TrEMBL record:
Organism annotation: Bradyrhizobium canariense
Organism lineage string: Bacteria, Pseudomonadati, Pseudomonadota, Alphaproteobacteria, Hyphomicrobiales
Highest taxon, organism lineage: Bacteria
Matches recorded under Pfam families: Epimerase
Entries under InterPro entries matching the protein: Epimerase_deHydtase, Lipid_A_modif_metabolic_enz, NAD(P)-bd_dom_sf
Protein name: NAD-dependent epimerase
Domain NAD-dependent epimerase/dehydratase: 11-240
Amino acid sequence: MVNGSGRSKRILITGVAGYVGPTLIRHLRDKFPDSKLIGFDTGYFAHNLTGAKRSPESLLDGLHFGDIRNFPAELLEGVDAVVHLAAISNDPMGTKFEAVTESINAKASIALANKAEQRGVGSFVFASSCSIYGAAEGRPRRESDSLNPLTAYARSKVAMENALRETNSGKMTVTCLRFATACGMSDRLRLDLVLNDFVASALSVGEIAVLSDGTPWRPLIDVADMARVIEWAVGRSPEHGGRFLVVNAGSNKGNYQVRELAEAVAAHLPGTKVSINPGAPPDKRSYQVDFALFAELAPSNLPLRSLDQSIENLCVGLRGMGFSDREFRNSPLVRLKTLNQHIEEGRLSTDLQWR
């Protein structure tokens, strides 16, 4: 992959040592073998490798550890594209660390984008989220529809999108990818994602306990397909979507109700019991999403992994790890548990600064 001057691109990936990073590194290295891939990460979860035979970051041309709240602007020198994954990355973490979530996901992220534009970065790819639609009954939500963020995590994504829209001077091509809920196997697997949790539960205890009545809607995207979407966004020209673009990233066939996900896992793993809690308080986070714009703009990068393929890859990966932890929700494979352990053992402060 080369830029307009004919030289290889230099791509900086923040949050590279998380759930998406390992798969993205491999994908970009394969697609753009001559480009320079630089990683930046705070290292909260870098030690949580799951079945990896080598460090995923060994495929990078450079790796820097640091806090995004104190991002060194010199790392942006000569960078053509920034892929911004770094974030406090789900609702439970956002609830416990609300101020930190705002500081990292919004304030520090906005500062990074401003520094990138000042340093002449040509493309900025922001990993946003469909969770910003929140409680959204009725038809699938389009990019132009109103937002209803219900959590600190979702609000931080809205704040970043708004800032990118308002401050974009037109010098940098900005792509906000409103990703569907992530799933699938990774070299740094998370089991605090709905499908991944269901597969782990089925394998470890032979049962999936749906805590809601199973009716909430969730769009899904496999982490491998997230990498394909980011590949497109990194190379996107303003002629395809404009200098500033917000786009739902996923597939219309990836909209599922939670009970459908549980039933799909049970069908893949015969003998799995599924229990639904019809008396549970309603989960207001329910949204179907319309991905027609992405299909129009990026027909060659549409998601390829089916739900069954994602389930199968999770089964293969977990079995390959010898996974059998019945208490996995209290394990480091749940990101909040890792942060809590860091704090309890004195490695992190309560504002998530390394001691």
